[in-house]
């Protein structure tokens, strides 16, 4: 069995919401070019996706909505379902391009379910805001929800979804809000300060799914240390209690301090640490099974390519040293596209390429991050037999 599968095809660049839209597929192209230039993808056979059949989309979406997406480019702007808005403009071949994104995440899930790989990564995926009957937040079809639903029908009954995007993973949470087979965990900027306005600590699931939605809303300006402190205070404990068979992670990088659409203050080094932590958690709690997808990220040149190259490298066990210089051929390509671009010199934001340091929860700190941690632990830990006051949990 191959250890890892990388899903990619240039056709995924067709998911393009417009030349001036922040969700620009150039970030994907620059990531693959950077990973290739650094040798991360050497001798790695890329898994080429195909668009999913319509019946697979019905796992997460209403038939009426799917038909609206198909008809939207011909019907014009007044199609409803969240389509034709500034966030989700109608574009040519929207259904086909969106179906390919879903297919790319689904083929990664298949690789793992069929034993062809223990890990799979699809940087083009992560469209976590799309809802059952409407588009939202740049997302037309919810590839994460479709893949999780498919896994539930193919041998998995305990799936953990961890969302590290700056925005709440609302569409995935909504899809499984009452389902105890799916644990959804989201760390994000506080919903009072950022779209989509959901993801409070008190959102914990309903009925049989109570306790299986976990939300950690973080204050604006949270840096690496605070973010990692919150993650380690919540995520390992709930994963250990849940005992997932597979870990699905949405790895948006719009939490970076330079991202133009949000207000957290992480670094590329923080992102790299997150990916390595997720890899370790998959090995510890999910028998190594890990499906990683992309998500948000709108600093197209300085942030996304470096962060997601680290993601690809982490999944492949080909970790890139943070002090590694960006290859000249890559920087020349970027400057040909954007002559005035300010290009970082190395694969790190830190002058010395060090790992972010953070203190563990329970060490006596008392700030806004700790308030978020306490609220989340109090809301969900007792439902899993965990002590919300014990830092060992």
Can you tell me about this structure?
- This protein is globular.
- Strand 4, helix 6 (170-175) and strand 5 form a beta-alpha-beta unit.
- The protein has an 8-stranded parallel sheet with strand order 2-1-3-8-7-4-5-6, sandwiched between helices.
- It contains 11 helices and 8 strands.
- By secondary structure, the chain is of the alpha/beta class.
- The relative contact order is 0.14.
- It has helices spanning 26-37, 54-57, 63-75, 94-113, 143-152, 170-175, 224-242, 268-285, 304-315, 328-337, 368-380, and strands at residues 2-7, 46-47, 117-122, 159-163, 182-189, 213-218, 246-250, 290-293.
- It has a single domain, classed as Histone deacetylase domain (Arginase, Chain A, 3-Layer(aba) Sandwich), CATH 3.40.800.20.
- Helix 1 (26-37) packs across helix 9, helix 4 packs parallel to helix 5 and helix 7 (224-242) packs parallel to helix 8 (268-285).
Q: Major sheet: order of its strands?
A: 2-1-3-8-7-4-5-6
What's the CATH topology label?
Arginase, Chain A
The number of strands is: 8
Beta content: 5-15%
Summarize the amount of helix as a percent range.
25-40%
Output the CATH homologous superfamily. Histone deacetylase domain
Rg (CA only): 20 Å
Low-confidence parts? none
CATH architecture annotation: 3-Layer(aba) Sandwich
Our count of domains comes out at 1
């Amino acid at each position: 069995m191959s250890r890892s599968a990388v899903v990619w095809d240039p056709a995924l660049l067709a998911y393009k919401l417009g030349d001036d839209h922040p969700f620009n597929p150039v970030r994907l192209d620059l990531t693959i070019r950077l990973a290739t230039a650094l040798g991360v993808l050497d001798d790695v056979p890329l898994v080429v996706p195909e668009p999913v059949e319509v019946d697979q989309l019905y796992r997460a979406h209403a038939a009426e909505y799917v038909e609206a997406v198909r008809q939207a480019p011909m019907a014009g702007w007044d199609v409803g379902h969240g389509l034709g808005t500034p966030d989700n403009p109608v574009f040519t071949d929207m259904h086909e391009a969106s179906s390919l994104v879903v297919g790319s995440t689904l083929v990664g899930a298949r690789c793992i379910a069929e034993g062809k790989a223990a890990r799979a990564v699809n940087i083009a995926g992560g469209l976590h805001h799309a809802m059952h009957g409407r588009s939202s937040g740049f997302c037309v079809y919810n590839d994460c929800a479709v893949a999780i639903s498919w896994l539930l029908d193919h041998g998995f009954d305990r799936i953990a979804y961890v969302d590290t995007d700056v925005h709440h993973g609302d569409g995935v949470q909504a899809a499984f809000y009452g389902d105890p087979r799916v644990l959804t965990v989201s760390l994000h900027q506080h919903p009072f300060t950022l779209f989509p306005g959901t993801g409070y600590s008190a959102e914990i699931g309903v009925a049989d799914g109570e306790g299986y939605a976990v939300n950690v809303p973080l204050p604006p300006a949270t840096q690496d240390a605070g973010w990692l402190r919150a993650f380690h205070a919540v995520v390992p404990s709930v994963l250990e209690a849940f005992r997932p068979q597979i870990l699905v992670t949405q790895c948006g990088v719009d939490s970076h301090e330079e991202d133009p659409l949000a207000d957290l203050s992480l670094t590329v080094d923080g992102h790299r640490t997150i990916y390595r932590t997720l890899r370790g958690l998959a090995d510890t709690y999910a028998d190594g099974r890990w499906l990683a997808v992309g998500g948000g990220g709108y600093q197209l040149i300085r942030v996304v390519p470096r962060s997601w190259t680290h993601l690809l490298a982490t999944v492949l066990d080909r970790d890139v040293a943070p002090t590694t210089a960006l290859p000249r051929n890559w920087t020349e390509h970027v400057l040909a596209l954007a002559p005035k671009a300010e290009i970082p010199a190395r694969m790190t934001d830190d002058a010395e390429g060090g790992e972010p340091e953070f203190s563990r929860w329970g060490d006596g700190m008392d700030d806004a991050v700790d308030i978020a941690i306490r609220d989340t632990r109090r809301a969900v830990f007792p439902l899993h037999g965990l002590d919300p006051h014990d830092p060992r949990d």
